[in-house]
Amino acid sequence: MLTIAVHLANTPPQLLPAREQMAFTLASHILLVPFGVALPFITVLMHYRALRRNDPVALLLARRWSAVMAVQFAIGIITGTVLSLEFGLLWPGMMGRWGDVFGLGFGVEAWAFFLEAVLIAVYLYGWRRLKPWTHWWLAVPLPLTAAMGAFGIIAANSWMNTPQGFHLDSQGNPVDVDVRQAIFTPMFGPQYWHFVVAMFMTAGYVVAGVYAVGWLRGRRDRYHKLGFTVPFTVAAILTPVQFFLGDNAARAVFHKQPVKFAAMEIVWKTDRHVPEYIFGRLHGNGTISGGIKIPQLDSILAGFKPSTQVTGLTAVPASDRPTPTEATIVHWAFDIMATIGSVLILLALWYAWIWWRHRDLPLNRWFFSCAALAGAACLITVECGWITTEVGRQPWIVYNNMRVSEAVTTTHAGGIWTMLGIVVVLYVTVFWAFLAVVLKMRTRWRIADEGAAARGAHGPETDIPYGPRREPVPGEAGAAAGGGSGTTSGGAR
């Protein structure tokens, strides 16, 4: 506590509220990002399955997921816009000096955001208005625009971690900007692919978790089975891939940001044969309490041999490295992320084993209980990943070039605290509205499915979302109940 007090006393009064506001908005917005990046792909994949196999259940799932995707995108506009404004309002020192160097990433993200909005509108209103395959092909660019948005954001963030593509003049201002180098920094590749796969995993496990809960509550129809299988399979396939991508990203940090790596692994002094601590707390004198100590493992993980030298926090002055408290936060975030990832690999292997043996889902309540929790666990790992990335870079906002305290606004601290309170109220309201809308849609869909079953139609399988709506003719009521895909013109055939 004394270390924290001393640290705060030596920083501008605006720094703490600015950091708190940025942390809150980023932590809130990042919960929506997996669905913005990956839900379009999962929806288009389900849509393709529906058209390829003439499967009305898959078609209905794709249509309903597209509605959720649109609502999520609308909420993301609000949270993303606030986050973008905060860069200029809270950190004018960084944007004023370095905006010309790394600002293109934000521009790419803005264009991707615009294109995605147009494509979502076309896709959403194309149901019942376009020919099936025409409608699907118009949706194919959606996942690409989502990946393009992630490209822009990660390009900007990776530049903050490993800045390059410029020279400094005599006043310390960047000149001779090389845009290509500023985008494709040493951390861009490892960070981008690790991030994108994490988004796909998270969206897949969250969507599958919704249907896993339905299965646990006794809804064992094909609608819930297919709604679980497709996104869960996507996530399960990517889980072992993510293990290697995460290891590659951590090793890139070891080589390019050694002090951040020291914080991730709470390494105090530069040494060889460095042990690995699973959890544990770093103290100001370099001692570590708690946790599980595994001799030499950190050196082995970093360089594949026990003699690998690992840079410690004390390799740089105290003013140029994370505090012991910050290092402990980073270390815990990194270990939580790695632990959850390891458990998800076991879940994916369980799923693969059962599917290989029986070509069917594991009919086991324990499996579906774990699957229902996997989505929430992935959201936690997403938060932990950004904590590792951002807190581990402290005290730098631009690594080794500008401190956070140098970039912060000169606005009175009281005004920033007030703005933080307004933002919290806004975000709570927005997220409450989002959940209310999604739950309302779920209730309406469930009532529609139960009504279809009561009329003799086989649950949701009869609602074909292609072709123009038409009012049922009284004499055709019986035929409409069991007509399947033949009840609408322009159906998926």
UniProtKB/TrEMBL annotation:
Primary localization class, coarse: membrane
GO cellular component, one term: cytochrome complex
Transmembrane parts of this sequence: 22-46, 67-89, 101-124, 136-160, 192-214, 226-245, 329-354, 366-388, 416-439
Protein topology in the membrane: Multi-pass membrane protein
Coiled coil: none
Region: Disordered, residue numbers: 455-493
Keywords associated with the record: Cell membrane, Electron transport, Heme, Iron, Membrane, Metal-binding, Transmembrane, Transmembrane helix, Transport
Gene Ontology BP, a term: aerobic electron transport chain
GO molecular function terms noted in the UniProt entry: electron transfer activity; heme binding; metal ion binding; oxidoreductase activity, acting on diphenols and related substances as donors, oxygen as acceptor
Compositionally biased spans, kind Gly residues: 480-493
Subcellular location: Cell membrane
Keyword Iron listed: yes
Annotated InterPro entries: Cyt-d_ubiquinol_oxidase_su_1 (IPR002585)
Family, similarity comment: Belongs to the cytochrome ubiquinol oxidase subunit 1 family.
Name assigned to this protein: Cytochrome ubiquinol oxidase subunit I
